[in-house]
Amino acid sequence: MGRGWGWGILLLLPFLTHAQPLTLSLDEVVTLARQQSIAGKQAATLQKTNYWKYRSFLADFRPQLSLDGSLPSFTRSFIQVQQPDGTIAFQPVSNNNSVLNLSLSQNIPLTGGSIYVQQQLQRFDDFLNQNTLYNGIPFAVGLSQPLFRFNPMKWDRRIEPLRYAESNQQYIESMEQVALDATGLYFDLLVAQVNLQIAETNRANNDTLLTIARHKLELGKISRNDLLQLQLSVLNARKDLASARQTAEVASLKLRTFLNIQGEINALRPFDLAIPNQIRSFSVDVKQALNQAFANRSDAIGFQRRKLEADRDVDRARKENGLNATLNADFGLTNRGNRPGDVYVRPQNRQFVEVSFTVPIMTWGRQRARLETANANAELTVQTLEQAKRTFEQQVYTQVTLIEMLRQQVKLTAEADEIAQSRYQIAQERFKLSDLTVTDLGIAIQDKDRARRDAILALRDYWQAYYTLRLLTLFDFETNQKITPPPAPPQ
């Protein structure tokens, strides 16, 4: 920041102190978090990366057209040449051997091989003898096919779509996690603000009550001990106020940082958070929640993917331990000449067939060990997935039963808060009329503060449970619809 900007902020500080607060509801904070938080942008970037990875995978199964070669390929040197009598002579060479090859290839996922169509032109220039020759392949079709070997393409076609679908659901989950984190920070600040309001009210009320108590002491209506108790309450109230103010500032900074609020003015505006009293009424069936969780969550897709990966590893271990062979075949036309066009005049047949193989004969049990290891890992994966499924089911079941209980807690704590506030008002009036002791007044104050905090904490528990249920099921039970990916936040 330049010096001019720094002085500008200093000049604005007196006005920013009395600036309009940034009024936000819980829904607005969740929306802001999804749109502009760093966590939301990271989730969107990761999803974009996964999308292009999947596009790259799909491209591997489409025809590939490529042009390769060496142009030029010049050599000037001495080479070793064996003479008829067996001696060696070093002859000078100066030539250019350029090659261009145009090929169209296609992978065959079913067999794991590939087929290609090829056209090639080669030019050889002998600069010492002033001679130029052309060689070429006007047309050729070839096949490269592994025999009795592991086919990774077959497994990739089953696994990669699941991996991409899993990443899509992980993006939705990440956005729901952003909403849950934002809710936690929202209520951290809201609880801090409520505590600050309570501390400010208690400090003002205790100052007023201390003034009244001093007047009563002069009239002999209270004891010196009661006055000292009120003086202690005033000191405690001031101490609580300072602590509550500092806690609120820290909570405000955490929420502001998470929301990634930009701009000099907005960065200094205080938050004014609304209390989300409107509890959303909807019913949640445990069976429906479990069905939606296993239909929507990335974990459920991940279970299928991990099982397939274990089966793939067993298949690899089994087939790479036996006979490994590869068939390479090439059929086409070829010719040579002194001009490029000669290559295409009455070309000759061209054939190439090769079968390469490897047969393990003595491995000292290595093949069996690898296969048994793969089988044991597959069995362990199945057991781990089964345990993960049961743990996941317990989480969903617990959350469904919890949210209904918390909805009742919100209602009960709200009623208790209303009663406690009314009771405190009555106790305050009775103390002014000398009809209540300082001890009873202190109890009323504690009950009032505890009831207000309990009401806010019950709201926090409910809304966190609400967003946790959405995260676990990726289902909106209010609208009875699956949660779709939100728009990606701007980068």
CATH architecture of the largest domain: Up-down Bundle
Distance between the termini: 23 Å
Q: Number of helix segments?
A: 9
Task: Give the overall form.
Answer: elongated
Secondary-structure-based class equals: alpha+beta
Radius of gyration: 39 Å
Number of domains: 2
Query: What integer is the average pLDDT?
Result: 85
Family: Belongs to the outer membrane factor (OMF) (TC 1.B.17) family.
GO molecular function, one term: porin activity
Subcellular location: Cell outer membrane
Coiled coil: 368-395
Please write out the topology.
Elements: H1 3-16, E1 22-24, H2 26-36, H3 38-59, E2 64-70, E3 74-82, E4 88-108, E5 113-126, E6 131-147, H4 152-219, H5 224-259, E7 271-273, H6 286-296, H7 298-319, E8 324-337, E9 348-358, H8 366-432, H9 438-473, E10 475-476, E11 481-482
Parallel strand pairs: 1-7
Antiparallel strand pairs: 2-4, 3-4, 4-5, 5-6, 6-8, 8-9, 10-11
Pfam families: OEP (PF02321)
Protein name: Transporter
Coiled coil: 368-395
Describe this structure in words.
With 491 residues, the chain is an alpha+beta fold. Helix content is 58%, strand content 21%. The protein contains 9 helices and 11 strands. The strands form 3 sheets. Strands 2, 3, 4, 5, 6, 8 and 9 form a 7-stranded antiparallel sheet that branches. It has a two-stranded parallel ribbon with strand order 1-7. Strand 5 and strand 6 form a beta hairpin. Helix 8 packs antiparallel against helix 9 (438-473). The chain is elongated. The relative contact order is 0.13. Mean pLDDT is 85; it is low at 1-17.
